[in-house]
Amino acid sequence: MHYTGLIEKYRDRLPVAAGTRPVSLNEGGTPLIELVNLPRLIGKRVRIFAKFEGLNPTGSFKDRGMTMAVTKAVEAGARAIICASTGNTSAAAAAYAARAGIACFVLIPEGKIALGKLAQAMMHGSVVIQIRGNFDDGMRLVQEIAKTMPVSIVNSINPFRLQGQKTIAFEVIEALGDAPDYHALPVGNAGNITAHWIGYSEAVCQNTLACALCEGRCGHHRTKIATRRPIMLGYQAAGAAPLLRGRPVENPETVATAIRIGNPVSWQQAVAAQRESGGWFGECADEEILRVQKLLAQAEGIFCEPASAASVAGLIQDLNAGRVKEGSTIACTLTGHGLKDPDTAIAQCEAPVTVAAERGAIERVIRENLNI
Ligand code: AN7
């Protein structure tokens, strides 16, 4: 049957009513791609699977949360949505608002979001408000503003966002036949690690009690689809690692602008996921994030954005430290597409060679590169 997005697919596991009409761009259903070269390159006997969320309609996992948040906002009669964003949330909000025919306001830190994300927010017709401040300032402002203005918040403090994003866990389980041993992902505002844990927890639960969100309509705890839950590994950029440090970071800084966040709103839930799963938080230096981003692009053919590469960069560190055991199966969420941030990609690569439009000149380049 024609795939029409995650609300239709997981209707019985999501807090939606029978008559709810999804605002959807057919998000979800992303591939789980085994990394076929990386384990050999790092000399570890493990199976690593990348959940490539860059292949969602707006190029990040945010679409999963946004289909739910906008569907519910429209159902409740909202005429406008608002979010603070490091880029991907604004791109998704803008697209789903366009689809629903409602207004969208996005607050972004001036000069600190990747070019592709800015283009998306602008192109989909949202009102882009650049603030002279960082994401955390924007998050605080959005919460204040939503108290007095007729705008519905679609940041991940909106519980429907997490409900949509929990479907990543369901899809990983379906692809592998059960939960992996570990699940690694980048952590910024900490909504996604919370959502993954909700998904994995519901997957092993047969509790038929009604969930608080839907007042008994969904019955999403009905069928057990996994026998266990993974150990959760949450990786932050070294310059923006509040969860690792145990306190907010005043001026977060990292090349991975998507996770340039110093005071995550889902702090408590993320810590709960880490503790309950027996997992931990780790940090990655910017150089390491970029090195692994390039490694994924050049050794696996997968172009993710810098923040996404933190999941694999952190995993490699913990494999080398012996903290993640060999023989394990690991899922890594690659949260966004590399095309989102062309500036950072180009800055890491050698400039193209420029030659005359002549056969000889091109043959010379080929010979040099193949050493023949
Ligand atoms: C590619 O867009 O917060 O820990 O405003 O874009 O759930 O915040 C983006 C976050 C990881 C972190 N990878 O997820 C925003 C925003 C990418 C991201 C994260 C983000 P959370």
Structural description of this entry:
- The structure is a single chain.
- The strands form two sheets. Strands 1-2-10-7-8-9 form a six-stranded mixed beta sheet, with helices on both faces. A four-stranded parallel beta sheet has the order 5-4-3-6.
- The chain has 15 helices and ten strands.
- The protein is 41% helix and 14% strand.
- It is globular, with a radius of gyration of 21 Å.
- Helix 3 runs parallel beside helix 4, helix 4 runs parallel beside helix 5 and helix 9 packs across helix 11.
- Strand 3, helix 4 and strand 4 form a beta-alpha-beta unit.
- With 372 residues, the protein is α/β, with parallel strands linked by helices.
- Bound molecules: ligand AN7.
State the shape. globular
Distance between the termini: 52 Å
| Biggest sheet statistics | 6 strands, mixed
| Ligand roster | ligand AN7
Number of DSSP strands? 10
Strand content: 5-15%
